[in-house]
Amino acid sequence: MEFRFITTADPLYQQELALRFELLRKPLNMPQGSEAFPFEEESLHLVAVEGGRVVGCVLFKPEGNSGRIFQMAVAKDFQGRGAGTAMSL
Length: 89
Description:
Layout: E1 2-6, H1 12-25, E2 44-50, E3 53-63, E4 66-74, H2 83-88
Antiparallel strand pairs: 1-2, 2-3, 3-4
């Protein structure tokens, strides 16, 4: 598993959005598109990639000297393998 920072221009960004929707918004019956925040462009996007597939992600919004984490998700078939822990360190 490889971890990398991406921008919203990266082709993997669409996979990140799909993962966030599928795991975090769809179960709450929220519409597709609700996974995207107005601050996507200025946020840091860390993704876990396996075989060209985004299997984990976290969105970090800088705020002054710190920031906030939003929408951490790990694909169901990769949960329990340490991806979430690695992305939060």
